[in-house]
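Appendix B. Raw example, untouched.
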Amino acid sequence: MFRIWTKAEDVQSAATIWLMAISERADASTSDIQAVARVAQICVLFGSDELTAADVAEKTGLNRTTAYRYCASMVAAGILERGSRRGTFALGSLMLQVGIHALTRRRVVEVAPEFLRTLRTTVRMTSVLSVWGAGHPVVALVEEDTSRTVLVTVRLGAELDAAAAQTHVFLAYADDAAFDAFAEGLTDAERRDLRAAVDAVREQGYAVVTYPGGFGNAAAPVFDDRGICATVAVLGASQDADLSPGSPALTELQSTAAAISKRLGGAS
């Protein structure tokens, strides 16, 4: 309901009330923005693991009561759901829907499957497509190689860490700010190792990582008309796969990444 101010002496009062209303709306707007930012911060914490409110509180700096209230409200909204263990939470169905919609907007996810299947069959290794998520590469497509005795694979939706070849490739084509954000929390030695791996990708155009236990991972960049949009990788047991420079598997990996890039209108 509106009021029309007609008396001159009421003008100052009207202005005062108007400014108070603006201030209240600004405070509400700021509060809303902070709440949205907090929800996003909490969502990023959840990967494949289930977390308790105490876990969320520790990682965000919230007190446990506030963290629990956020988690409970996010369950009501479908952003989170109750975990399999008592007192835990996991990503909910709404996040699954949002993730699917986000991925389908990336043309690379539509284009890549046929290339990944060919790569898997040719090199007899599991082939993987990863895209950049909230600060980390995320596995978007997996074509598992079941032709060998040992199956080496990765979970769809897995968030990749600093040891992954895909991470090295993404960071090689990112700016220093992205590297610093990713490397936050690493030790000085881990940061130096990551920098060396990224520099190697910039020099040779691909990444190769050998893990303890005899497993290997190689990755190459995929470009669209805006720059790097994904990585293609192969995973396998070291005794079954030669990922040395010029090897058939590494050459096929690079050719596959280049072919997908060409289809997307990017320069490899």
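End of appendix B.
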